[in-house]
Amino acid sequence: MARPNLAFRTRGLTKTYGTGEAAVRALRGVDLDIPQGEFVVLLGPSGSGKSTLLNIIGGLDRASEGEAWFGDQNLSELSDAALTRYRRDHVGFVFQFYNLMPSLTARENVELVTEIAPDPMDAEEALAMVGLRERADHFPAQLSGGEQQRVAIARAVAKKPTVLFCDEPTGALDSTTGRAVLKVLRDVNERLGATVMIVTHAAATAGMADRVIDFADGDVREVTENKKKLSPDEIEW
Ligand code: ADP
Ligand code: MG
User: Fold this and answer.
1) Spatial CA neighbour of 218 closest among 35, 1, 64
2) In this structure, what CATH number is given to the domain that contains residue 183?
3) Which of 16, 52, 96 to mutate for ligand 1's pocket (most ligand atoms within 8 Å of CB)?
4) pLDDT tens digit string along 206-222?
5) Which of 6, 8, 74, 188 is deepest in the core (most CB within 10 A)?
């Protein structure tokens, strides 16, 4: 039987912060299969381990035990240099608070990535994709929150990532702006074919997903596959 190509597979993925009395078990043996090209939404209470999971499969952090596979690469076994290469070549990250360089224009912020990626799009093209071609020469302080987040998305997608991780990307935005950001993320998924994985508190976002992962207490509680996906305009906030 044909098996869909997996972007990620984790087995027994465990993360413990600290040691002894102070140890926090953030991930408790996560087994997860994420097919390539999907739009995935990860829901769960604060402190349940969502960011920890994203950081490990995104190559920003390492597991304590268990395996995390990107295609046929076991991330747990990569050297630091190889993990950095994985991140640089394949992974885009978008965070709640944009993390733009205030002294650089929108274009220059995107160029931080296009200058080091192996096969990037033009900064202009990436900004056009998020509807900000006209704002390329503006500084972050001259842009609204939603526009700054779109610059952050342009920066993340300009390298043409295989996978785009978004940790609460709409957390600081009002619902109209949040919707606009979700539209951009869906476009990235559909037009670039990137696997997009979004951590969010906005449970309604789940309606847009191919796959919804409910997370609790450091483990997967339930995985739901949507038969019908809603557009960002159709979801309720
Ligand atoms: P979520 O993103 O779902 O809110 P996190 O992955 O951020 O959850 O955190 C999971 C647990 O791990 C929480 O109890 C949190 O306090 C703890 N934690 C996260 N990062 C660290 C860290 N760097 N050091 C110690 N504990 C941490
Ligand atoms: Mg988090």
Assistant:
1) 64
2) 3.40.50.300
3) 52
4) 999 999 999 999 999 99
5) 188
